[in-house]
Amino acid sequence: MIKKFLFSTLIALCSISAVNAQSKVKETNKLEDPDNLASQYFSQVMGVAVDATSNLKLYKFIYEWIGTPYRFGGNTQKGIDCSAFTKAIYDKVFNTTILRNSRDIFSMVNPLPKDELKEGDLVFFKIKSRSITHIGIYLGDNRFAHASSSRGVVISNLNEPYYSRYFYKGGRILDSVKDELIEE
C-alpha cells in the first residue's frame, strides 16, 4: 500500500515537472523569438504597447527616424517635415502612395474621432489656424509619431495639453484610394 502511494506520488511529481519544463521551453522560445524581442524593445524605447499584432515594420521605420531634425520642405534624414515623414511611412511600410501636403492627405481619408483610431491611422491638427497644419501617424495608446517643428521626429501623446488643444481629426486611408493604387 505504501509502495503504491509512493509510486503514485512519484508519477504525479514527474508529470508536474514535465509540464513545468514544457512551459519553460515555451517561455524561452517566446523570449528568443526575434519578433517578440523587437516588440519588447520598441515597447520600452518608444513607450508604446507593441504586441504580436503590431506592425513591426512600422516601429522599425519610426525608430530609424527618431531624432531626425525638422526642416520645412525636407524629406531626408538630414531634415524632414511632418507630411514628408508621413508620406515616407506610407510609401515604405504600407506600400501606399499618399499626397505630400497634410491638407491634401486629409482628402484621402475617412475622418475618424480619436476613440476609433487604430495603429497606422493618421492624426490631423489645426495648430493656430483654420486649416490643417500638422499630421502624424497613430501608434495606439494615444501615442503618435510625427516630425515636430521644435523637436524633430518624436513620439508624442494626443492627451498632452498642446496636442489635445489642436487635435482636429483622425483618418484612415480610403479603400478607393488603395484600389486606385492597385489598378495603376
UniProtKB/TrEMBL annotation:
Domain of life according to the entry: Bacteria
Matching InterPro entries: Murein_DD/LD_carboxypeptidase (IPR052062), NLP_P60_dom (IPR000064), Papain-like_cys_pep_sf (IPR038765)
Entry annotated with the keyword ATP-binding: no
Residues of the NlpC/P60 domain: 52-174
An individual GO BP term: proteolysis
Signal peptide start-end: 1-21
Keywords: Hydrolase, Protease, Signal, Thiol protease
GO molecular function: cysteine-type peptidase activity
The UniProt record lists the keyword Metal-binding: no
Homology family: Belongs to the peptidase C40 family.
Protein name: NlpC/P60 domain-containing protein
